[in-house]
Amino acid sequence: MDHSDVRIVELTTEAEWRRAYPVMSELRPYLEEEGYLRLLREMRKEGYRLFALLEGDEIAAVAGVTVWTTFYYGRHVFVYDLVTQSDRRSRGYGRKLLNHVERWAEERGCERVALSSNQARKEAHRFYEEKMGYRKPSYQFVKEL
Asked: pTM of the full predicted structure?
């Protein structure tokens, strides 16, 4: 695969976030564009960063992360969102983007990268465990209020 015209950038403007919406909506189909932008503005205040893998000038994949410190992971980056556009999968873009996040985390003094993945996303689990070297140390629980 030729990745000569592939690069990763941080998306920091509302215009860039809008360009990323079609890719993000593949992972979060329940989000309308305006709701996505409203939440993203709030999340940015809390430290959320959005990275995009560009193929030429087109966004092919995105990753949304935050740096946190907890008792169980220490200082770490949590990956909230990682998705490659469906017609561009199996080109190594997810690996390239997650590798970028890992380097970015190390540059910020993080000890590890953590993420959560929906139980139904079996292919994603195989990718994280078999190709990226992640382990599954716990289950995540949520309760609606």
From this structure: 0.91
